Amino acid sequence: MLDELIRLRQELHQHPELSHKETLTAQRIYSFVSAHQPSEIITKIGGEGLAVCYNYSEVGPTVAIRCELDALPIEEENQLAYQSVVKGVSHKCGHDGHMAIVAGLSPWLREQNFNKGKVVLLFQPAEEIGKGAYDMVQDEKLASLGIDYMFALHNIPGEKKHSIITMDERFSAEVISCSIKLEGQESHAAEPEKGISPAAALSMLIAALSKLNVPQTQNNNYAVLTPVYMHMGEQAYGISPALGEIHYTIRTWSAETMAELRSRIQHQVEIVCKEERLRFKLEWFEHFAAAQNNSFCNKLVKQAARANDFDVIEKPHPFKFGEDFGWFSKAYKTAMFGLGAGRGTPALHSRTYDFPDELIETGVKMFEEIITRLLED
Ligand SMILES: [Zn+2]
Ligand SMILES: [Zn+2]
Question: From ligand 2's centre to the CA of 325, what distance in Å?
Answer without folding.
Answer: 10
